[in-house]
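Q: Could you predict the 3D structure of SAM-dependent methyltransferase?
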Amino acid sequence: MIQESEASEPEATRRDADVAESSRANRGWWDRNADEYQTEHGTFLGDDRFVWGPEGLDEVEAELLGPPEGLKGRDVLEIGAGAAQCSRWLTAQGARPVALDISHRQLQHALRIGGSFPLVCADAGALPFADGSFDLACSAYGALPFVADPRRVLREVRRVLRPGGRLVFSVTHPIRWAFPDEPGPEGLSVSASYFDRTPYVEQDDEGRAVYVEHHRTLGDRVRDVVTSGFRLVDLVEPEWPVWNTSEWGGWSPLRGNLIPGTAIFVCERSEVGSSPAEGRGRD
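A: Sure. Here are the predicted structure tokens for SAM-dependent methyltransferase:
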């Protein structure tokens, strides 16, 4: 789980948090912590790289959105863009990205670094774009780990994609929820049920959520994708590379060489049927 420190230490717990509470808490958290986040992780992320997660898998080598030469002239929506590093890389390939984030402060960092693409401050569950506006959508640890209703987000993404459009998104690998969020040996022993979907919540002294992260099992994520009107093309679990000696929260070379830390879902907009079907799996 991605967490950063706050001035006053909140209480960490596991409890329910609905769509509105999760959105409100995470907008505030990222606004308050954007400066620290960019200071701590900005060098690793770069200003114009497209990195899918703490392992350092780069879109240059992964080509999950397709060959770089095929991105020229494509309209791309980056969801949970942060300082828009990925959008900057997409621009360099000749694409036309739009960088969207719920946090105004994160987008101020995007302005600080610079770029010629639009920045949009909005909730991923209510995208302010017309149907069929984009050829591609991408999200590197953006939005989906933090929303209470991922299907709402996925259906919105499907709506704004053109027929045949591709969505690629990365999240914390679901198996990590069974382990403590620690980079050392203490993070290698199972401490919780993988099947416990109760959200992780940090709350203030009055019980108000200030940070929320939601757990979905691997099966849940697959059902979310398929029942929201996508076809799952690939599921990538990046291995930890030898060159990466960095620690990022609970991600580390020690853990990365033993258990997966990131799951990347490569999806395409399904044209089968008139509307996404409801799944029979647990929501």
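Q: Anything worth pointing out?
A: The two ends are 20 Å apart (CA to CA).
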